[in-house]
Prior knowledge:
- By secondary structure, the protein is an alpha+beta fold.
- The protein folds into two domains: 31-103, lambda repressor-like DNA-binding domains (434 Repressor (Amino-terminal Domain)); 120-224, Jelly Rolls (Sandwich), CATH 2.60.120.
- Helix content is 28%, strand content 26%.
- It contains seven helices and eleven strands.
- The chain has helices spanning 3-11, 16-21, 36-51, 56-63, 67-74, 82-91, 96-100, and strands at residues 31-32, 121-125, 130-134, 144-151, 162-163, 168-175, 177-182, 185-190, 194-198, 203-206, 213-220.
- The strands form three sheets. The protein has a six-stranded antiparallel β-sheet with strand order 2-3-4-11-6-9, covered by helices on one side. A three-stranded antiparallel β-sheet has the order 8-7-10. A two-stranded parallel sheet has the order 1-5.
- It starts with a helix and ends with a strand.
- Mean pLDDT is 80; it is low at 1-26.
Amino acid sequence: xxxxxxxxxxxxxxxxxxxxxxxxxxxxxxxxxxxxxxxxxxxxxxxxxxxxxxxxxxxxxxxxxxxxxxxxxxxxxxxxxxxxxxxxxxxxxxxxxxxxxxxxxxxxxxxxxxxxxxxxxxxxxxxxxxxxxxxxxxxxxxxxxxxxxxxxxxxxxxxxxxxxxxxxxxxxxxxxxxxxxxxxxxxxxxxxxxxxxxxxxxxxxxxxxxxxxxxxxxxxxxxx
Length: 224
């Protein structure tokens, strides 16, 4: 039996005690992420709001939107309209250019077919100890986007399960360890292991090891 086949066999028979050590937040609602871009914008807004010491209620009232909507925008669960984005930009004194720089194609080769090292679009989630880079050149017209995730020791997506748009997602652990919980199945992955799942499956993941984990992900492009 190959190591990969052994891994599949082992993880598909995870013991009940292992699952109890990593609860699935039974009864808690599963979060549906709108898109990676919405997640990035929301993270910038949340970090700025906290840095200025404002509460959700204060910012929502200033922008004439509900607290619930602002909370969903910050968590990447809702796309933000141009009007609301402009209001948030003014209230938080955060230039629109800053918020939109990772939404627009990165500067690279003239036709967008190449993006140089250090110029890939980034999503930093400092409180979760996760940094993601979109490795997809702007000129790529296919239905797949490539991402690299750097997960610091203890970094995770959180206790709540989340899901994204349906479609097969494939990952490869370049370095470190990754614990991937998909519904009620716990996968313990090491460098060299690959995996796949449907984006509509409730899941969460974390780095349980003492060193950074690097994962390469291929996910379906979300039409905007």
